[in-house]
Here is the input.
Amino acid sequence: MSNAGIISGSLPRSFGKYTLTRELGRGAMGVVFEARDSALDRRVALKLMLPSDNPNPQEAAIEEQLFTREAQLCARLEKHPNIVSVYEAGTIEGRRYIAMEYIDGVPLSDWATEKKPGLRARVRVLRDVALAIHHAHTGGILHRDLKPKNVLIDGQGRPYVTDFGMAKRVGGTSESTAGGASSSAGTVVGTPSYMSPEQAQGLKKIDVRTDVYALGAMLYEMLAGSPPFPGEMTIVALMRVVQDPIVPPSVASQAWANSREDKAIEAVCLKALSKNPDDRFPDALAFADRLSLWLGERRGVTLRKGGEKKRGPLPYLLPLLALPIVMVVALVVSRMSQQLPPPSEMMWAEAPQLLKLVDPAKDSAAGTWRAEKEGLVSAASPRARVEIPWRPPEEYDLKVTFVRRQGSEVVAILLPWNGATLVWEAPRALENGTLHTALFRVRKDGLASNLTAKRVNSLTSYAPPPPADPQWALRDPALLGLGCHEGVVEFQSVQAIEISGKGTRTRP
Here is the structure.
């Protein structure tokens, strides 16, 4: 049988110790068959290198090296439940092959179309893919060709990352002219829809954040229905990846804009898709952590040998994006909230509205405040602040909603904590006229915050106890407070859920 016949002949047929039974798919460099390993009596996925039509023998030899590199790199990885294992590689009848774990499943793209799973199910799959990619990264391997077709979903909905044909070692440079996005002959391979700007530019040095971008593009497709830059491999498509801004999913898809799903995930998506790698998540684990948070699935912290902290499952509201704060505090991973789930919407609906207790004339500590409907509005003045005549218990959850009407300076929430006042400041780049929600979990061993809005999703955690900031001091540091600096802010609601102890009014 000729080499060409091995690739295109009738099935089933023999190939060394393997029996090829059916074709599973084709890629740029190889064709994958379902096969039976007669020596070990097991089913495998057998990838055969396609015959090269490159007239340059040197370039054809490099293409062969790229094919075998997949097996060499994957062989270095410890077994991971969501990565297809490589059993062996070699040459039979003059044809390079890789024998891999057989997954009885379909590509993620087909699974989404055929099964029509809900968004949470798809995000959970992507979270597991991100954890698998982080495992590859810690093993020294970049995938560089992540896309829905390279993720297989089995009958139980478990994902498996496959096709490391474009992989390279972490910290290495490309063997080709396009930073690993092209072949040795200079032909760009891969899919621009999921390719990072640095790959599309042909930069030789890329790192784990290029895979983070691809994960973000897959998430974008889950939200908007298509990747950010759909299209075939053309120079125009590559330039769009490099130059064009990302249209937010809620703008690109009316269906997503109208959905009832938590829109905080959109900020996660856009951060992963930042043009500048420095603005993305630092690694796939941080991306996975944010998806876990959105899913409401808590994760914990484990220790590596030697005491080095390793992020595993995160607790609710772990620090992922640092928020600016007035005082300098140490960042910690606290034990708070491991015993309690996040408050439900029903719990918040029943939580008391503390703004009803405020009398602007009596409770203003600085600046001018006025009641408006059921809320409070500040006048533009330096460090305006108002006390809420309610002394919270030792541990509590707090929810504050506000709209900055004018200005670009500080919006502050003042939290009594361990005998001092923590001054939380919202990012100054808030969009005026947009409703923002700040959530806090105050515990004896730590405080965590989460700010969500149309363009903001920021989390942080603080270690106790922070020093009080005299410029934001309240008359009574045991009270909650609200503040703003040189701006007009409307605080629409302040609600608290008591966790440990009871809060008390300080005025009838």
Summary: Confidence is low (pLDDT under 50) at residues 173-189, 299-341. The two ends are 94 Å apart (CA to CA).
